[in-house]
Amino acid sequence: MAFKVGILVVSDTCSKDPSQDQTGPALISYFDNLSKESKRQDHNYEVSKTAIVADVASEIQRVLINWSSDSEDIRLILTCGGTGFTKHDITPEAVSELITRPAPGIVHAMLTESLRKTPYAIMARPVAGVIGKTLVITLPGSPRGAKENFGAVSSTLCHALAQLEHTGGRELHMKMNRTLHDTEPGSSESKLGEKCNSDKRCGSDQDQDHNNNHNHKHEHNHEHNHDHNNEHNHDHNNEHNHDHSHSHNHNHHGLVKHTLINQTESGVPSVVKRPRKSPYPMLEIEDALQIVLENTLKPEVTTISIEDPELIGSILSKPIFSPMDVPNFPASIVDGYAVVSTDGPGVYPLDFASCASAHSEKRSVESGLIARVTTGAPVPAGADAVVMVEETEVVSTQEGGKEEDRVLIKAQNVKPGDNIRKPGSDLSKGAEIFAAGHQITNGGEIGLLASVGIREVSVYQKPRIGVLSTGDELRNYSDTVLDTSLSYGEVFDSNRPSLISLLRQFGFKPIDLDIVRDNEGQLEETLDAAINGKLGLDYLITSGGVSMGEKDYIKPVIQQKLNGKIHFGRIRMKPGKPTTFATVKRNSEDGSNANGHLNFFALPGNPASACVAMLLLVIPSLRKFQGLSEKSLQLTHISVRLAEPMKLDATRVEYPRVQVFVDENGDLVAKSTGMQRSSRIGSFKNANALLRLPSEAELHKSVLEQGERATVLVFGHIGPL
Question: Where is this chain compositionally biased, Basic and acidic residues type (predicted)?
Fold first, then answer.
């Protein structure tokens, strides 16, 4: 069985013209020769993936994340190119953000070999390390440099790749005679170490120099006391004890183990042990949104009356067809006189009047006579046109003067059908009124349903959403006794009202779950009640507690206490980098959504960050849940002209808040709302859109100039400035 290898060429030039790539084919040939030279054909390499991307960090990371997934089973990824000193050489930075376990020995070996050949090797910036169960090594872009660097480490790589199969180091290191054929990938049979048996003591003399203290019980009966600080201490990330201080006592009673003090109890605060680097890879916003949508549940269907206020904003789950013609009789469009069109102008006696009424009689009019009709009234049989009252004149009246007797028709060229609504001309029986997936947005649409006698419709149920804030520093803006004075370090909670109002703006009705303090137990209790309680939530949205602070408990509570799955914990965007998305199995008491899960959005604590993440990620998911089509999930994207220069972030796409307006020439223009600090909710004042600013790395420039065009995502009304 072979180790699967992926070769990723990083080059702007080759991404545009793959025929320019020489390094990829050179490495493929190199691996072919390695396999042919191998003494064991079942233990070699198989190049299973190749790709070429531009010098863009997001493209590099997208491939690495995909290839290092369990489904691909690629054990070794080699990147080629982008490791130098030019502005576009960003491969080491892109790879480093994803690596969880660096491999400095591989880097050292490659640099050492390169320096033997050229002094210019000091300008190389290779990176190596593990992503999941995949080893990633960055190589130079030239065919020769790539082969030489890989050749410097290839002789021992099989052992490194074999270790990625195992959870502990004991099996691999009981035998120290390491070779290329220590173990086979995917094999449970390893030749790296033999299990101890009753005839051979694990701690025998021949093994003592390299035992690495894997909790073997050594019985040393020395007559002196000394400390063995073994210099061969190898940390293999397993659960074995690596302390090599052996105490050999005079009492001849063997090894004495003592209970170690708890570090927290000894006065060492837990905060010093928290991670200094996020374990979550940095995803592009597009990839994060795709993950969110893939994990959004299908909506539930319910029946609702057209008089229910909840119908506005609801999505129809199935099409609606007209059960009748509208109108269901020939109706006059105007107030006037029903005539026979061929009679022409002249004075005609009035036969009768036809008014709009639920009890109208079916009557007819003959040539030479006319009938007075009102708007919406049935047109009598025999008449084929209606002349407006403005095109007539009363010649004489009946006795009493209340009714006309004879009327002059002045209109010429009257044609059949003039001013008459034919049956079914507005809506024919069986015609589709609304398609499945249509969103009811206004009262006129409800009126259309009523016009054909439809009283109930089938819609997708709107999501049940809970919103809460976390933080010891927060003060509820709606406190009973409210004054504007705050304690030192205290702030009013602006996140909940902001997020709740945004949700209402988009037609949702969230539930306010108040504030939860930075207490892990209280947080777990509140979240568990929200997820599994009687509220029957489909979505839980929190703000705060998702970064790297000592009281940021959201992520560990989701994983360790709620048994949730965190799909991502960082996004390459500004603001909103620590935005987290998880799914949690729920056990609602009322059984709703019993076979599904709850979508958990843990948004940043900075107000502007939370609102931007809400608009970019939460709203599309909510829209999908309630049944909107894929093309309608995101905010509307439009092109605008910039009113001022906009500086680009070096590596992250940025979403500053802007006011889009129509200028005097009818063009759409975007103007910044001021300082864009992530904590400044004031940046939403007058804002009606988010401006999408690509990163400097993506555009290869640092500023978008005034007058240049850019894309905005609209969430408010656009009008003149």
Answer: 191-212, 220-246
- Name the pLDDT band for 533 (thresholds 50, 70, 90): confident
Give the three-state DSSP class for 398.
Answer: coil
Tens digit of each residue's pLDDT (9 = 90 or more) over 186-240: 444 444 333 333 333 333 333 333 333 343 444 344 434 333 333 333 333 333 4
Q: Decide yes or no: CATH 3.60.15.10 for domain 3-173.
A: no
Contact assessment for residue 713 and residue 689, using Cβ atoms and an 8 Å cutoff: yes
The single residue listed with the structure tokens 């005539």 is 339
Q: Residue 46 has what DSSP assignment?
A: E
Whether the predicted model's global pTM rises above the 0.70 cut: no
Distances (CA, A) of 512 to 444, 456, 490: 32, 30, 21
What whole-number distance in Å separates Cα of residue 649 and Cα of residue 642?
17
Cβ–Cβ < 8 Å for 561, 528: yes
DSSP-derived 3-state class of residue 394? strand
Query: How many residues in the chain?
Result: 721
CATH superfamily of 636-720: MoeA, C-terminal, domain IV (2.40.340.10)
Task: Tell me how far apart the alpha carbons of residues 537 and 587 are, in angstroms, rounded to a whole number.
Answer: 11
Kindly report, residue by residue over 368-404, the tens digit of the pLDDT: 999 999 999 999 999 999 999 999 999 999 888 888 9
Tell me which H or E stretch contains 610. Answer: helix 607-613
* Topology agreement, domain 285-293+462-629 and domain 636-720: no
* Domain residue ranges in the chain: 3-173, 198-261, 285-293+462-629, 301-325+426-460, 331-421, 636-720
Q: Helix, strand, or coil here: 109?
A: helix
The pLDDT tens digits for 405-427 are 999 999 999 999 999 999 999 99
Segment 513-539 shows an average pLDDT of: 92
CATH hierarchy code of domain 331-421: 2.170.190.11
pLDDT at 299: 86
Please say whether the structural domain 301-325+426-460 has been given the CATH code 3.40.50.150: no
First to last CA, the chain: 68
